[in-house]
Design a protein that fits this description.
The structure is a single chain. This protein is of the alpha/beta class. Helix content is 39%, strand content 28%. Mean pLDDT is 89; it is low at 249-257.
Length: 257
């Protein structure tokens, strides 16, 4: 189980929102690159960036902060980014400048042809972000709720060749209310590609619950407010996930008596 610290960028700063509300942001760092280094030092094996301004504007708005993070972190740590990615030129720009995975959310729903083209042009590098409330997909920085069923879109986008799906329960994001295991498992059972859980991971109990369903296709989880406010220690959480999800590897690492 891969645990992925989130670095949400607003006006060049690292913030956390409650339920995607840009007006309800808590600033955690004026230096996102330093925050990226902190998570890497604590054992992060991937980073999740979101350009919040870009999600609303429809085009990248935090390029300087994003590049600073790329330059500051080890090239062995993959970085995935979402927010405001609406065309192939933006996808190519990010992949050419140190980003490993590009997350397409709103544009995947509004312009499926763009997603299909991106998956064909950059195989293995495209992740679809599906944000939903009560099973219905939200777009435009969560400001608009569509009539699309999240499972139906997931199956469709899987056929396009996307690498994985990030599923966010926007009713729980930033609320420290616990991850929606049932909804995440339900989605993962509908597709063959990996699903990454997002929204509401608040404690080690959530990590235990996620590890218990890794066999259902849930390969990772994005952590946000819980690790920023200290409710969850990232290093402890990743070590627990490694132990619970890969017990054979853990046993092999222990010295014999």
């Amino acid at each position: 189980m891969l645990l992925i610290p989130a670095i949400d960028l607003q006006d060049g700063r690292c913030v956390r929102l409650r339920q995607g509300d840009l007006a309800d942001a808590t600033v955690f760092s004026e230096d996102p690159a330093a925050m990226a280094i902190q998570w890497a030092d604590q054992g992060a094996r991937r980073l999740h960036l979101v350009d919040l301004n870009g999600a609303v504007a429809g085009k990248p708005r935090n390029r300087a902060a994003i590049q600073a993070i790329v330059d500051a972190t080890d090239e062995d740590i993959p970085i995935q980014i979402g927010g405001g990615i609406r065309d192939l030129n933006t996808v190519e720009y990010y992949l050419d400048n140190g980003i490993s995975y590009v997350i397409i959310g709103t544009a995947a729903v509004k312009d499926p042809g763009f997603l299909s083209d991106a998956c064909s042009a950059f195989p293995g590098h495209i992740i679809v972000g599906l944000d939903a409330r009560d099973g219905k997909v939200a777009t435009d920085g969560w400001s608009k709720l569509t009539r699309h069923d999240v499972a139906d879109l997931a199956r469709k986008f899987e056929d396009y060749g996307c690498e994985s799906i990030i599923y966010t329960d926007i009713g729980r994001d930033g609320m420290l209310s616990g991850v929606n295991i049932e909804a995440t498992v339900h989605l993962a059972q509908q597709v063959r590609i990996p699903v990454i859980a997002s929204g509401g991971v608040a404690s080690l109990d959530d990590i235990r619950a996620l590890c218990a369903v890794t066999g259902q296709g849930i390969d990772g989880a994005i952590l946000g407010r819980s690790i920023y406010e200290g409710a969850l220690n990232f290093t402890e959480a990743q070590e627990l996930a490694d132990t619970l999800c890969d017990p054979d590897d853990e046993a092999e690492a222990e010295p014999s008596a």
